[in-house]
Design goal:
The longest helix is centred in the middle third of the chain and has 12 residues. The chain has one domain: EF-hand (Recoverin, domain 1, Orthogonal Bundle), CATH 1.10.238.10. By secondary structure, it is mostly helical. A two-stranded antiparallel sheet has the order 1-2. Bound molecules: calcium ion (CA) (2 copies). The site of one calcium ion has 7 residues, from loops. One of its GO terms (molecular function) is calcium ion binding.
Length: 91
């Protein structure tokens, strides 16, 4: 099974856009991203497997293994999201 879809019409997200998106998904405003918040953000990025991506992303970026992405860890989270090569659909 392939998790990669080709979306030739899309434009890749920039690092800045990805970071802004993740920050905007801190719904409870505690400065940390929970797995649910990460999952919602990945859905917004265009993932059809938000839960799968959230688990993988946390494993990748959650350096202290507390299940939350802190401000220090969010750069690694963005790196992971950028590696997934989601694209921004043209409006
Ligand atoms: Ca939060
Ligand atoms: Ca953490």
């Amino acid at each position: 099974m392939s998790f990669i879809r080709s979306q030739p019409a899309g434009v890749p997200w920039t690092r800045e856009q990805v970071l802004n998106l993740f920050n905007s998904f801190d719904k409870d405003g505690d400065g940390m991203l929970s797995k649910e918040e990460v999952k919602a953000a990945f859905r917004k990025l265009g993932s059809h497997w938000g839960g799968f991506r959230a688990r993988r992303a946390l494993r990748h970026a959650d350096a202290n293994r507390d299940g939350l992405i802190s401000a220090e860890e969010i750069n690694d989270l963005a790196n992971y999201a950028l590696k997934c090569r989601y694209t921004l659909k043209q409006l």
